[in-house]
Amino acid sequence: MSKTIASLFEEEPAQWGLRGDPHLWREMREYFKHTPLPASADILVVQIGSAFLALTEHSISEKQHFHIERFGRGGMSGGYISPEFWREKVIPLLQERFDKLGK
Fold this sequence. Notes:
By secondary structure, the protein is mainly alpha-helical. It is about 45% helix and about 5% strand. The chain has one domain (about 15-100). It contains 3 helices and 2 strands. Strands 1-2 form a two-stranded antiparallel sheet.
């Protein structure tokens, strides 16, 4: 059985950007559970960006954080997503995991 993109999401990051980010991480893992790993890390980045847009209705390139109602679980930053965190922390983490798989 070939690995899926979801396999890159198995271990969660040690730190998060905002309180909504772990919820989006888990949705991404579910979103990609049947999607095979792509041929390159560049394609992976495009796929992550597309999933980000599909799940949040916001571009991963946005400068400001934004609120996703279904992720609101209380707290001042409850439900907020940090695109910067995804660009600067999550994408490099996933690329590193992808590279370790020898793709």
